[in-house]
Backbone:
């Protein structure tokens, strides 16, 4: 069907001749470049679109072609469960490794920028959506508001302490880092960064060791649960100019090596962020935007990054790369490797204005 659509568009372009090609509407672009989830069973070589919806008592449906995906989160107690965040259509989850998806009632619209799950009780889930942090204690059946941002402030990131899940952190688009010690009942602002918080990550060895990435003010690191902070500003300015935008960060679960994506670079640290070195890419660093990173949880030498056109995989910590075109012309906004099967890779795509 999409081949016919593309052929029709090409014919129209020829007909308009010197007047130029007709600009596609979002609906036409969606049909030609479907969104949703793609799954590979061979480490990214081939992809299958998985957008079937499971709805009790109703006729099975599919994602609309226009649905974009911005993040995946695995349930730490059952890796068959995957949560999927979108920028407009709220939250979905799968209980069968992505073979089918359920649209979550109560969060069926809005921009889901983050999901955090209590490893003691997987029915406790926190979702950052628009201006609020929502919480369920009933496995998504009911929801309550855990935090409401001030005015039009957005909640842009959420993290849950893996050692003590009563400790939560949220970030906002105004740079606030806000902490709760009682599972979201009470909150205190502990830091204001100069720009939007893009992500909150925990070091694998110590949940008091935090990595907070910001939109325009680099990566910030705390080793004492947010009481004090260091940032990478001066080092990055000297070594890696224009690397102030923190896009994504992953950590080797065995060695602790960190891979950090900025706007023009992919960087590596072997000492928990004290020093950094460039990872050589197939793409030209200053001409590349990395939209997402993923690491094999069983082999930290194997990791992936996605751009607006391709997905790249290395199996030797960046010395050698393979790459494939994305299965749609949307950007590779989210990647995840299945924790129990390293051959299975999930790709979420998003349509960006060119």
Residues:
């Amino acid at each position: 069907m999409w081949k016919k659509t593309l052929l029709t568009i090409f014919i129209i372009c020829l007909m308009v001749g010197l007047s130029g090609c007709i600009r596609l509407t979002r609906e036409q672009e969606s049909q030609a470049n479907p969104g949703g989830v793609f799954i590979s069973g061979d480490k990214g070589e081939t992809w299958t679109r998985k957008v079937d919806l499971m709805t009790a008592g109703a006729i099975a449906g599919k994602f609309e072609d226009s649905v974009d995906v911005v993040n995946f989160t695995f349930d730490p107690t059952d890796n068959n469960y995957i949560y999927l965040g979108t920028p407009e259509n709220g939250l979905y989850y799968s209980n069968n490794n992505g073979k089918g998806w359920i649209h979550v009632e109560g969060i069926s619209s809005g921009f889901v920028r983050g999901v955090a799950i209590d490893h003691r009780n997987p029915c406790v889930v926190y979702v950052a959506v628009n201006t609020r942090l929502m919480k369920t204690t009933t496995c998504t059946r009911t929801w309550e508001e855990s935090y409401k941002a001030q005015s039009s402030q957005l909640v842009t990131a959420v993290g849950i302490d893996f050692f003590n899940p009563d400790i939560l952190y949220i970030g906002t688009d105004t740079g606030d880092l806000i902490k709760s010690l009682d599972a979201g009942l009470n909150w205190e602002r502990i830091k204001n960064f100069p720009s939007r918080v893009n992500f909150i990550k925990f070091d694998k060895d110590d949940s008091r060791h935090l990595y907070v990435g910001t939109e325009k003010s680099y990566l910030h690191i705390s080793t004492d649960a947010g009481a004090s902070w260091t940032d990478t500003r001066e080092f990055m300015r000297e070594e890696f100019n224009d690397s102030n935008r923190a896009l994504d960060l992953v950590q080797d679960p065995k060695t602790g090596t960190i891979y950090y994506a900025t706007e023009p670079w992919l960087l590596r640290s072997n000492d928990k962020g004290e020093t950094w070195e460039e990872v050589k890419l197939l793409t030209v660093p200053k001409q590349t935007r990395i939209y997402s990173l993923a690491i094999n949880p069983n082999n930290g030498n194997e990791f992936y990054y996605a751009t607006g056109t391709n997905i790249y995989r290395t199996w030797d910590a960046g010395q050698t790369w393979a790459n494939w075109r994305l299965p749609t012309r949307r950007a590779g906004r989210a990647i995840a490797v299945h924790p129990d099967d390293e051959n299975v890779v999930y790709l979420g795509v998003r349509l960006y204005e060119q």
